[in-house]
Specification:
7-stranded antiparallel sheet
């Protein structure tokens, strides 16, 4: 789960010193489930802790953590056209603030009120030529639409879709030796953490009679090269049951080209 300067961490860690999570956060196994209920209704869920680390900060493990989620729980269920349910929750959230401290966020983000911060002291997955330092703007919000998921071509969709997860958008501004922002060299990073989805055709009827086909697609796309746009799934777990998939963590990195 690596970018050049970034790492997305999840799962258990051997000791607290090795953990990218704040003190007192017990690391847990990453849990993804996909199932067909007795009525053949597809459902999926994800439970995990996530931490985003910026290695260019250096120092001990916790100093490289710029964002941490504790107790992410997402779930989806697809019944009929009018019966899809989704849930996106988190127990606690930490974000490195302008002063450089990893701050506990008391007002957790919602669809109506995303968490937004500017000029935070961390960078991008890519190294930008000419940058001495950098600062980042961030927005964190729940996933509400299927199109928000970062998907491989094998990620199935149909007439009725449901999605859940946490979307993290980061815009990093490169800064030169004189403290000026380098124009045209912003790097935009999008992460989807705990992504889950399900899909059914519009004529689907919940029943115990007609079986739903099962498929388990999986894959990996290479990271984008500097100066290009692309997709780099990180720890992308795909479990299939009919037209249903559950994804753990993924991100996209885009670097804006400066047109002369």
């Amino acid at each position: 789960m690596y970018g050049k300067n970034y790492e997305v961490n999840l799962g258990k860690f051997g000791s607290e010193a090795d953990s990218p999570f704040p003190a007192g956060v017990e690391t847990t196994e990453f849990k993804v489930e996909a199932e067909l209920k007795a009525t053949h209704v597809p459902a999926a869920s994800v439970e995990a802790n996530f931490a985003l680390r910026d290695f260019k900060r250096g120092g001990e493990t916790l100093n490289t953590t710029v964002l941490a989620f504790k107790g992410v729980k997402t779930s989806v269920e697809c019944g009929t056209v009018d019966e899809t349910t989704t849930s996106t929750a988190v127990d606690a959230l930490w974000l490195r603030n302008q002063e450089g401290a990893l701050e506990a966020i008391t007002d957790l983000p919602t669809v109506e009120k995303p968490l937004e911060r500017k000029d935070l002291p961390f960078g991008a997955p890519l190294t930008v030529e000419g940058a001495v330092t950098s600062k980042s703007d961030i927005k964190i919000s729940p996933v509400t639409k299927f199109d928000q998921l970062i998907r491989l071509k094998s990620w199935l969709e149909s007439d009725v879709n449901a999605a859940a997860g946490w979307q993290v958008d980061i815009v990093t501004h490169a800064v030169d030796a004189e403290g000026k922002v380098l124009e045209g060299k912003d790097v935009t990073t999008r992460l989807v953490l705990g992504g889950a989805s399900c899909s059914v055709p519009k004529d689907f009827v919940a029943t115990e009679e007609d079986p739903v086909p099962t498929a388990v697609p999986a894959g990996y796309a290479a990271p984008a090269a500097p100066g290009e746009s692309g997709t780099s799934p990180l720890g992308f777990t795909l479990l299939g049951a009919g037209a249903l998939l559950a994804g753990g963590a993924a991100f996209v990195v885009r670097r804006r080209r400066h047109d002369h």
